[in-house]
Write a structure and sequence with these properties.
Number of helices: 9
Distance between the termini: 5 Å
Radius of gyration: 20 Å
Shape: globular
Number of strands: 17
Number of domains: 1
CATH topology: Beta-lactamase
Strand order of the largest sheet: 3-2-1-16-15-14-13-12
Helix content: 25-40%
Largest sheet: 8 strands, antiparallel
CATH superfamily: DD-peptidase/beta-lactamase superfamily
CATH class: Alpha Beta
């Protein structure tokens, strides 16, 4: 693949779609193959998008948190299938939502099964998001972003019985903190970011790098306007959000993906074992269907089905497509995304990984999906 191919593809996609700017990168187990930046980081000031832009990567955090948890499984500090209540007392006796009384108060009963680490890793715990579950939003009531209350709610179903995208990864991060004795950010710095030389990744942005932050925008009435929220809760957050709090760059996240392509190692640094990568890369939810989301908050996200017509699985931290994707990725690839239209995939069969980072809401915006498809298609073209 010629480096120019990706730049041309990204430039053309942004010329055809109402997207302010984007960064894209493609790599394999040996190196970065191509990178591109196009458009504007900040339409208000006319600032151009640059390759070193720092993005809120939101739910792309989940894959990193999953690797952190699996490191601790390898060390025997966490167990995939023991009740997680021993590590997280808040989840020791979960309630199951049965409905609402005439006053709109939730009616609950004790869940019959315990939540396990595997349930948290696979989003089969029964915990949702307020924007993916109207019942969860109603049961929670008004909560502050970044608060413990924002990830606390009754279960929507018995653990292990269905798939629902939600706050499971935030609790996964809390489990890492509980057994490591560190904040999630400190643990990730010591065991993932520093070994992988991901110097621009963390739960905050250093003051000297603030000018590299790409402002968050929102599409409203066919215009992209400033939308200055911190998805992880910002300075007021009560915890480091393992589900969505990281800031990162394309280059940093590519190093994380190349580590997965290399079966857990990069540049001589072993992050997780090859056996752990293999387990994380296998479907863990049986016949359940993963990946589809129905949004009840259209300003934040649209409805999303990454592979219409496919029954996608979920590994320990990743979506898995069971058939070849329409834009090139092989069956069995690993993928997910982040709320401000950030997308990645890791195709071990083809030894190829790619990402495209944008910074606007709502998630699954039609124009953003066209840009993602253009980047992936370019990645699989051979020139």
């Amino acid at each position: 693949m010629r480096p120019l191919d990706l730049q041309e593809a990204l430039d053309q996609a942004l010329a055809e779609q109402p997207v302010a700017g984007a960064v894209a990168m493609v790599g394999n187990s040996n190196s970065v193959l191509a990178s591109a930046a196009s458009g504007l980081a900040d339409p208000a000031s006319g600032t151009a998008m640059t390759l070193d832009g720092i993005f809120q990567i939101a739910s792309m955090t989940k894959a990193v948190t999953s690797v952190a948890a699996m490191q601790l499984v390898e060390r025997g500090l966490l167990s995939l299938d023991d009740p997680i209540g021993a590590v997280l007392p808040e989840l020791a006796r979960p309630d199951l939502l049965k409905g609402f009384d005439p006053d709109g108060q939730p009616v609950v009963e004790p869940a019959s099964k315990p939540i396990t680490l595997r349930h948290l890793l696979t989003h089969s715990s029964g915990l949702g998001y307020s924007f993916t579950s109207a019942d969860m939003a109603k049961a929670q009531g008004k909560v502050a972003p970044g608060s413990i209350a924002s990830i606390s709610a009754p279960l929507m179903f018995e653990p292990g019985s269905d798939w629902l995208y939600g706050v499971s990864s935030d609790w996964l991060g809390r489990a890492v903190e509980s057994v490591s004795g560190q904040t999630l950010g400190a643990y990730m710095e010591d065991h993932i970011f520093a070994p992988l030389a991901m110097s621009d990744t963390g739960f905050s942005v250093a003051s000297e790098n603030i000018e590299r932050r790409v402002p968050l925008l929102s599409r409203q009435e066919d215009a992209l306007i400033p939308f200055p929220i911190e998805i992880g809760g910002g300075d007021a957050a009560e915890f480091h959000s393992g589900g969505g709090g990281l800031y990162s760059t394309a280059a940093d996240y590519m190093r994380f993906m190349r580590m997965i392509l290399n079966r857990g190692t990069l540049d001589g640094e072993r992050i997780i074992s090859a056996e752990t990568v293999a387990i994380m890369s296998k479907n863990q939810i049986g016949a359940m269907r993963a990946g589809r989301m129905e949004s009840v908050a259209p300003l934040l996200a649209g409805n999303y089905d990454p592979f219409p017509g496919m029954r996608c699985g979920w590994g320990l931290g990743f979506l898995i497509n069971p058939e070849t994707g329409p834009d090139g990725r092989a069956a069995g690839s690993l993928a997910w995304a982040g709320l401000p239209n950030c997308y990645f995939w890791i195709d071990c069969a083809s030894d190829l990984a790619g990402l495209v980072l944008m910074q606007f809401l709502p998630f699954a915006d039609e124009a953003a999906l066209h840009v993602r498809a253009a980047v992936e298609s370019a990645a699989y073209r051979r020139g």
